[in-house]
Each structure stands twice: as structure tokens, then as C-alpha cells.
Design goal:
By secondary structure, the protein is of the alpha/beta class.
Length: 748
Amino acid sequence: MDENQNNNSDNKNNKNRQSLLILLICALVSLMCMSIFSGAFTGNSTTTQEISYSEFLDMLDKGEVSSVTINSDTLEITPKSTDKSGSDITSRPSVKYYTNRTEDLTALTDRLNQAGVSFSRKKTGIAGEVVASVLEFLIPFVIFMVILSVFMNRMGRGSGVMGVGKSKAKAYVQKSTGVTFRDVAGEDEAKESLQEVVEFLHNPGKYAEIGAKLPKGCLLVGPPGTGKTLLAKAVAGEADVPFFSLSGSEFVEMFVGVGASRVRDLFDEAKKNAPCIIFIDEIDAIGKKRDSGQYGGNDEREQTLNQLLAEMDGFDSGKGLLILAATNRPEVLDPALLRPGRFDRRVIVDRPDLKGRVAILKVHAKDVAMDDTVDLDAIALATSGAVGSDLANMINEAAILAVKNGRKAVSQKDLQEAVEIVLVGKEKKDRILSPEERRIVSYHEVGHALLTALQKNTEPVQKITIIPRTMGALGYVMQVPEEEKYLNTKKELEARLVVTLGGRAAEEIVFDTVTTGAANDIEQATSIARAMITQYGMSDKFGLMGLATTENQYLDGRPVMNCGDETATEVDHEVMLMLKGAYEKAKSLLRAHRATLDRIAEYLITRETITGKEFMKIYRECEHLPENAGPAQTAGGAEGASAGAGSAANPEGASAGMGSAASATEGAGSSFTGERAPQAQEGAVSTQAAGAAENTVRSNGTAQAAANDSGRRPEDGKHKSKDDEMSFDDAFNTYIRHDSENDTKSSK
């Protein structure tokens, strides 16, 4: 697909260069023709040069004039030819002069008679002069247009000067898409819906017998990277029919009416090639709701939309003409475009589940050499919320790592490292932290990890590291769930909120101060607590009242408050109480297990990276637990020991004192808590950025790769801004889309 786009781009650049060259050639030819015809109409093959009237009089006094032709307002002067001695020779004039006549005809003839110069008077009608002037410019222009038209027609239809309104759709002949349903994985429901359309194109009579009609249009809706364009090409490949593909933005140009003209031309071509498929990518570029406000709207876009609506009503679906369109912003489309009879079917192409991710990984890994250690199920579990393009990128990064390390096949280690590269970037080996900063980062990360082990309803730790990464993380804790989940309980969200604030709590307990390392932890915790109150109905004060709605559910999934200012103020107060309670509980748990915190932190400072098994082994030794004790068993006693302190710190109740790192807004589904650089301030920076997936509620807690990061970014006393050092949210935003409303629907 990328290769086709590159080829199209190269062809477009070549056509632009050819067009410029053709224009230059035509301009030169026109100038030559004008020169030739100008000489032809004047009847002279000699060179003419303009002189002033005084110079003409000087030549006349010196006897250098051979003859003069008097026109209506000009004089044509033929000079004498002389040899070196000054004697006249045979006159072969190669240069003539002309000048404007400034004296009346009588005085001029007397002057010429006195000088002994022969003269004559040319009489031309006004009509003759006009015709000569017109032909002098008209003939070269006609030649110019003929040459230009011939070249443009050879370059391709619709690219000429008169082809502005022609459709730019790229027509693929039968089977030339090279994509079938075998190349699409992880979207079984979408494939099933589209396979019915393909069957109709193959056997229309089978459906016509009982009165069924082919849907006029199918709208593919889903987040970016889920394979909407790939599905459209697969439909064309399976149906074995011509495939017209173009983007919604290609309908609109600077000329008024061009978009509507291109829509008409596109449908005319499609009708000639029926049965066929028209695919319009990013249809929201022309299909936005028409503005009926007092300030008016975009007339050109609305004309294009009106023409599209008229064309979709005007063609007969019985001829096998199908329209496919793709968008990730269905909420902005015009209702007239979405009604039955135009786009009869809406196909949701959502993020794949665990089974779908495994299937996608297998599709992209079939041409990559893999060794026996590869476990795609484990990679799929660790990448909850990832879309097809993300998984393809991970497979490619793993193959690059294998070649870099001198191996002939990709191993499981390469795949795990590729996941981390996509999520938090490569290891930044040239960044060396001071001993004090290493201790701060180490305690920050261990604070997150230890609270995971001390609580129930948390995912086990897979890895802890304090090695900086290129996307801004100075360290992180990765958590991977034991199974894919589709719902999150209130207790799980509260436990994750405590884990999120564990880094800041550890800093305060150990160093008796805090750093900027928890900046993103606080941001994530706030968004999670706010979602619990405004979207999930997990607040005792507001109960089941919905206080926020989600906009752009397939893009950023950002919630928008739909309550009054006073209620919003009360929500802020409730969020503050919830965060305060969670923070007090985190400090209480860490104080009760300070020895374990110190032991694991010192070990992490020495090793820089430890696995989840190493972490649990040291934890069990410090807590005097048996080797086979699981996280749930170890957390039971720990939470019971600190329950009194936790509840005492939060008299408002448990719902106001605890939370989780998975917010529907900013949350962390397969959460990878990463670190962000400070914004023009010193200290450690924490990016608790949700990573290996969308939020727990949307991706339903699948790959809880929680990376609680902390660290300081001193680089010669200068710090990069937020834009310079991207957080994990910014770098891998496709993994952290949250929509509580959508999650509820999907869970049902």
C-alpha cells in the first residue's frame, strides 16, 4: 500500500515536470511563430530598427538616405550602402529604419525633394491593418493551443487545462488490488458484513429472487489504523470488479463547482464500468453537516455534498454499483448522508480483541523468519488496545532488531523489545543520571511496583527498569494481565489509582520531599478519578448522574462536561477528596513495608532492570512469605494491616478516597505508565502514560502494561519543553482511547 502511494506521488511529480516543460516549449514555439508571421504580414525580410525623427533628419542632411516610404503615420527609411572610399555601390539593404512622422506631408515632400531622395506613399485600408494585426497574434495562439492540447491528451485523461472538473479517482482493474479477505485479520464481524456484499455482486439473481436489493453504500467506521482502507480493497479483490478509489479531499479545489463536477464525472465512469466499487476515504472532508447558522457555511463543500447525495439517489443498485466510504469521525457527518437509501449499512471496524490481535500478528509474521521461542499469544496479551498498524510495526521492529543483533530469525526477546520500542522508545544509553537521581527514580518505580503487590485487584508486574528511553521515560513498571477482561470493577479502579500515586508517596516517605517526577502520575490519576465520578457513577455524592459525554470517540475520546459551573466545582472537590484518600492509603502501605521498599530499590539501583519474577522473589523474602504465594495472597494481609490508616485518612468514604489509573479520558487500559520531561522546571519527571493499550475500561484491562515512570532530566541545567519530549500518551495515542459509553455498549 505504501509502495502504491509512493508510486502515485512519483507519477504526480513527473506529470508536473512534464507539464512545465510542455508549457515552456509551447511558449518558445509561439514566440517564433509570432516573429515569422509578423515578418510575413509586413512583407519584408529585412531587419527594422526604430530611430528618432531628428536622427532621420541628420541622415537626410548627410545624404545617407536612399529612399523613404511614407505610411499614414510612420516613415520607412532605406539607407544607402557605401564602400570604404565613400562611393555608392549596388544597394542591397539588410537594415531598414522607421520613425514616426512629425511634420505634415507637404513639408516632408519638399524636404525630400531638396535632398534628392526618392519617396513613395503606401496606402493601406484600416480593415487590412486590423486583419493583419489579428492574424499576427491569432495564428500563433491557435498553434500554441493545438500543441498543448495534444501533449495534455497524451499525458492522460483529465489532466489537461479543460480537465479541472474531471474525477481524480484511481481505477484499479480486476484483481489489481492484490488484497483479499485472507489478508485481513482481527475484524471478523466487519468481514462478515462485507462478504454478504461480495456475494451479492457475484450472484445478484440469488438475492433478486426474493426481492432483496444490494445496499447502495457501506460506511466503514473506526479508529485510525484498524484497516478500513484494507477492507475496502479486499472487497474489490474478492468481488473481482473494478475499484475506484479516492480521498474526500480530492473533490475540493480552489475553483467553485469543481467538486460537484468531479462527483458527476466519477459516477458517470462508474456506471460505464458497472458492476464496480467506489471507495471514498475520509469522507468527512466533504460530508460534514451543512451549516444552517446565521454566519453561512462552506458553499463549495456543501455543493459537493449535495451533488453526492443526488448521485447516490439517482443510480440503480441493481446494476451492481456499490459505494464504500471510511471515516473516524461519524458524528460530524450530515444526517442526510447517513440515512438508509444512501449508506444503508454501517460497519464498525474497531480495535481487535485478544483473539484478533493474535490473528493479525500471524498475518504479518507469515513472511518473517521466527524461531521456536516466539509466543504470539503473549505479545497479543501485552498489547491490548493496539490496532493492526501498530502490530505490523512491532513485527517489523522485531525483524530489524534480529538483523541488528546478527540473528537469522526473530526471537521472543526481539518481539518484547519491539513492543517497548513502540511504546516508550529505544534505550537512551548516553543519558547518565547522577547517583542521587538514580535513587529517586528507583524508589519512584519501586513505589509503583510494591503497591501492585500489596493490593488485590491489580495485574502482576512483568518488568521494572530505570534505564531512560528516547520518548522521555526515565524508568517504568510494566504490568501484563493474566487474562483479557472486558469490564473493570470499582475496586480495580481504586487499586490502580493507589498504584498511580505510589511513586510520589515513595519519594515523600524516603526523601522527605517531592520532585517533578510525579507530574504525569498526577495528571493520569486526576483524569481517572474524574471519569469515575462523571462517567462511571462511582461517586457516593453524585451517584448515577452522568456529568460528562465523550466527543470524537474514535479519535482522542476526550470527555466534555455537560453540567453547570457550580456542579463542576463540586466535581473538582470530589476529585480532590478521592485523590487525597488514595494518596494517604499509598503512603500508609509503603510505611508499613518500608524495609521491603528499601531492599528492592537498592537491588534495582544495582541491576537497573529486574523482571517480575525477581521482584516477587525479593518481595516474598522480605515479607517472609512462601515461594508459591501468589499476588492475591500477599496482598490480603498487607491491605488488612493498613486498612485502619487508609479509612482514617478519608472520612468521606472509600469512594472518595481511592481510584485507579485507568481513566476513560486519559486512562491506561493495558496501561504502560511512562515518564515525561519536566516543563521548564527541574526535578524528576513522571509520565504515567497509558501505553500498550487503550484505557482499562475501553480495552477492558487486557494488557495492563502499566509503566509508572519517574526521573529527573537535567541536561546541563536545561530542560526540554513538553513538545520536545513527548509523553507516552502523545507518542502512542492510539493505545489510550477511552469511551465509557462505548465500553458499556460493547460489554453488553
